[in-house]
Amino acid sequence: MVSKQSEEFLKNLRLYLFSSGKNEKEIEDIISELEDHLLEAESQGKSVEDIIGQSPKHYMEQIAQEMSFDALGWMKYLPVIMIGSLSYIVLGDALRDELQYTLLELVGYPLILVLFIMLISLSFKYLAATPPDYKHWIVFGFLGVFPMGMFLGLLILNRRMETEMVVFGTAGQIAAIVATILIFIAISIWTKTWISIILPVILFVPEFIINSTSFDEGTKLTMSAVITPVLFAFFFWYLLKKEKTETCEDC
């Protein structure tokens, strides 16, 4: 098994190439071949730099330039990401009985998501090719602020511009709830993880239950502001603990 340094390099290389839109099978072939070279080199007392002969960033850029862009592969992921992301918005609005959108929103939501996906891809390439420092936290912070800022901008623009409203009735709300739930289940089956089901459960079920109670609005807002972040924190703590356990088992 390769050293921790080599394992980290391979993980970053995989992330960089995937974020660059390269073919998944070709990426795994390169990773597997390079892992064998690193394993052999480490047995002779050599390091990652001895094998690649340059900085990790330049090596990643060189490998990426030698590989073609896998447009077909990305076209497979893009619709799933778009539909999955929009499903969160639709499900939340349907559960709140607010399933109505202006034409500006119908255009704005998908556009913001496309821009955000492009930003994530560029950010992941940067994070994979540079050593961890304070700039990484700036990138993560910007990734967190960007969608909120864009959605807030869309909200303000939507209030200032009058465009036609598309309103969904009761039947439309029920259909939207059923459709989004089926989408989350399908994504879960496709990705072979429970995350796409657990996240909407954490995000919407507590809010739905709280809004069904007879508490006043202030109490409901306070409960939602506390319970949902706590559940998210517990879930991510569980994921980190599980990952550490699996890593220790592989050691």
Automatic annotation (TrEMBL):
Q: Where do the TM regions start and end?
A: 74-91, 103-124, 136-158, 165-187, 193-210, 222-240
Entries under InterPro entries matching the protein: HAAS_TM
Q: Which UniProt keywords apply?
A: Membrane, Transmembrane, Transmembrane helix
Location of the HAAS transmembrane region domain: 88-202
Tell me the protein's name.
HAAS transmembrane region domain-containing protein
Which organism does this sequence originate in? Bacillus salacetis
